[in-house]
Structure formats: C-alpha cells, structure tokens
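Quiz preparation item.
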C-alpha cells in the first residue's frame, strides 16, 4: 500500500516513510491510496471478536505488506494493554471509554501504536530519531508515554512554564528514560515556534533525524479506527441506526471513524461536537471553512481554530459537500452549557464526564431519535479536570492510583528560554 499526500504535489511513499516522515514535503497529509474493505466473513464474525482481533484485522488490511501479521499482533497487544469498556449511560446512549490508558486520555491509542510502529521500523535501520514535541498539555504526555523505552528514539518535550495544570506538568516531567522535558519561559506558541524553527535548521537536520510524531501522523490515525469497529460490533444488534458522537478539535478522532466506515463498517452517521471553537459545525452548516484564532475554553484539548485533519475529511469524501453533510452533523456548546451537561448527567444518571465528553453527550442528546443507538466517545477521565468538575457536582473526584503515583513523583525539567539559539545549543550539547 502506498500513501499519497492530500496536496498531491509529491510522489506517494511506503507506510514506513509516511510514518517516519510524519508530514509530506508539500504540507499535505498522508492517506492510503486505496481504502481496503473488510471481508463479509469478518463482518459476520464481528460480535464474537475481541478488541485485539478487530484491531489486527484493521491494521493488517492496510499495512500487511510492511509489517507481518505476527509482528502486528505483538504491536497491538503491547500498545492496547488496557480496557476499552462500553457503558450504558441511559436509554439508547452508550459511552465508549477511551481513557483507560496510561495518560487517561484517548490519545494513548494513537500515540502508543505509532511509537511501537516507529520502533519496529527503526530496528532494521540504525537511524536514531529525535522527536520534538511542543505541548500545551495532553499530547506531550501521551506521545512521551507511548515512546517510553522504545529503542532508537529520543523525545524532547517543550511545555510553557506555568501554563499547564499541575497534573499535566507532573505527567510531562516525571517520565525519565529517553524522555526529556524542557520548561520554556514563554507561551505554547513559543514552544511550537522553537520546534518549527528546529525542523528548518540546516545544521540540526544534518546532525539529527528530527521527527514530530504529531497528531497528523498516519500511524496515529489508523488505530483510532479500531475502537469504532469494536464499539459497533458490541452494539450492532441494538438497532439499525448507529451514530457516533465525537468531541472534536483537530478531527483526528473523527477521521478514525470515517476510515472505519469507508472500510465497510455500516455506521449510520457521525456527530462532530465542538466547544466555542465552532469552525467545523459552521462549515457543515454553510460550506464555508473559516479558520480563526482559537478561543480558550474549559474543554481545552478542543481549543482548535484551524482543525489540522480537515483536508483528510475532504479527501475521504472526494470533496463532495453533499456527501459530507449526509454523514456528519455538527454542533457546538459553550462553557456554561458544558457545565450544565456535566451536572445533568451526574445528577440524573450518576455518570461523571470530563468537559470534552460532556460536549459529546450534548451532541447525541440533540440529534439522537428514539430507536437509534448512540455511542459517545469519552476522550478523557474526568479526574484530569477535577478543578472544573468538583465545584459542579459538589463531590471529590477520585484520582486513580496510577495517576496518584505520578503526582507524587519528583519533577524533572530543564529550564529553557524561548530563544532558538539556546534551544539549539541544548540539542547539540545533550546528544
Ligand atoms: C485531543 C482531544 C480531543 C480532540 O480530539 P481531535 O482528534 O483533535 O479532534 C478531545 N478530547 C480530549 C480529551 C483530547 O485530548
């Protein structure tokens, strides 16, 4: 299978190249040239298959030429070594909890799979890869945890000093091994600027294989299709119409679902739910895509003003707006509405949601008809947002033991200025 760039200005590449490069040189995004279809036998057997078996088939169809079935099995079992529970919230609304991985957010699926695939390709290649990640919170820890201990890979995380939550900072600065955290005296944009400048710096590129491992890497997208197929398999006998509601920011999670549908999972439709950053709902309503500066909200992982996977959505539907709106509905909720949703569901059904998940719940409530089945993707554990959630429900939110341990560890971060020259000398000196 070859992977093309959505900008179509560079030749297609193998999966290995697409994964190791991350982004094509023409600034497009990689997608498989042909989207394979699940066999009818597979679709019939679905309800009896485990999550790992479903993931293996999804991966095999796309990358079997480059990673053997046996190696894929190992990668999948190792990457997804946590539960993927589905709970019924009430009536026809079910929640797929994607937050049982090490960083308690759905990004663990993409980051852990990508890390193992990169590690696999680097084994037969003596390149050492240096991954630079600018993070405003969650992405950095998911990527770093994913790559923890993977040979041939060094990770440098850059986060803005004083601008991430205490829990997030502990998650970023206590990892150790092949992960170094830099506490940058600046904003998230400064961190991102340092990383972007590094990618363009000739001296650094001569000495290092720099990679970004960002959310648009194709190896992060692919595993995000597996859990749609899995959830579908568990609820397919409930009704004819199955809708997924996806709390959305950069649309990576949504694209995973679109891929599952293209591969033959008969999902009826999707709801892309956003916060006040309503670029996607506005596009779905008006056909106008107008990126804006992002607005800060209490669902901060969705504070995105220019969704980076948008061109993948267009390509997956051959740029046909009518086809897009037939499959995807949009909706947005502001912070007050989000708070009300958290209170309502906790009060009414004893189910506690993080602000992102609450927005998804609001989306399902709005669009779901009786007789339909709705699956809400829960993207983070509510305890990660306890400062927001606790005053709403007037109860303490329990922190799982694995996070408690991280909170108690000693922070290890290297102070860094926002000057590129300082960052560059650091990279040279620490190599
Ligand atoms: C990243 C993230 C999202 C948004 O996912 P996209 O793939 O960027 O649309 C939603 N919720 C949480 C908790 C996240 O970390």
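Solution:
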């Amino acid at each position: 299978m070859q992977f093309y760039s959505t900008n179509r200005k560079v030749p297609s590449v193998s999966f290995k190249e697409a994964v190791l490069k991350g982004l094509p040189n023409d600034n497009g995004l990689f997608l498989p040239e042909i989207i394979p279809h699940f066999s009818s036998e597979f679709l019939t057997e679905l309800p009896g298959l485990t999550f790992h078996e479903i993931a293996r088939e999804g991966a095999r169809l796309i990358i079997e030429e480059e990673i053997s079935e046996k190696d894929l099995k190992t990668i999948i079992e190792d990457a997804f070594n946590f539960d993927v529970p589905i709970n019924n919230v009430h009536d026809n609304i079910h929640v797929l909890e994607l937050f049982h991985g090490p960083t308690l957010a759905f990004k663990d699926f993409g980051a852990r799979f990508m890390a193992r695939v990169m590690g696999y390709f680097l084994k037969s290649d003596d390149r050492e890869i240096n991954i630079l990640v600018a993070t405003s919170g969650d992405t950095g820890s998911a990527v770093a945890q994913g790559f923890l201990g993977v040979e041939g890979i060094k990770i440098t995380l850059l986060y803005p000093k004083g601008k991430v939550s205490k829990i997030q900072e502990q998650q970023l600065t206590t990892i150790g091994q092949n992960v170094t955290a830099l506490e940058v005296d600046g904003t998230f944009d400064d961190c991102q600027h340092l990383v972007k400048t590094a990618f363009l710096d000739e001296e650094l590129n001569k000495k290092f294989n720099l990679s970004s491992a960002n959310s648009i890497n194709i190896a992060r997208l692919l595993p995000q299709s597996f859990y749609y197929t899995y959830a579908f398999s568990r609820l397919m006998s409930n009704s004819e119409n199955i809708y997924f509601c996806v709390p959305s920011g950069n649309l990576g999670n949504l694209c995973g679902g679109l891929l599952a549908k293209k591969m033959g999972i008969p999902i009826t439709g999707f709801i892309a739910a956003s916060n006040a950053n309503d670029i996607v709902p506005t596009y779905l309503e008006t056909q106008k895509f107008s990126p804006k500066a992002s607005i800060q909200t209490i669902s901060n992982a969705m504070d995105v003003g220019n969704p980076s996977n948008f061109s993948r959505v267009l390509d997956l539907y051959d740029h046909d707006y009518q086809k897009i709106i037939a499959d995807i509905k949009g909706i947005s909720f502001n912070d007050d509405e989000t708070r009300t949703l958290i209170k309502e569901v906790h009060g009414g059904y004893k189910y506690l949601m993080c602000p992102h998940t609450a927005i998804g719940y609001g989306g399902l409530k709005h669009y779901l008809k009786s007789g339909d089945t709705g699956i809400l993707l829960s993207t983070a554990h509510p305890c990660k947002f306890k400062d927001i959630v606790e005053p709403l429900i007037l109860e303490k939110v329990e922190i799982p033991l694995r996070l408690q341990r991280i909170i108690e560890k000693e922070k290890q971060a290297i102070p860094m200025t926002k000057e590129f020259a300082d960052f560059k000398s650091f990279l040279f000196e620490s190599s």
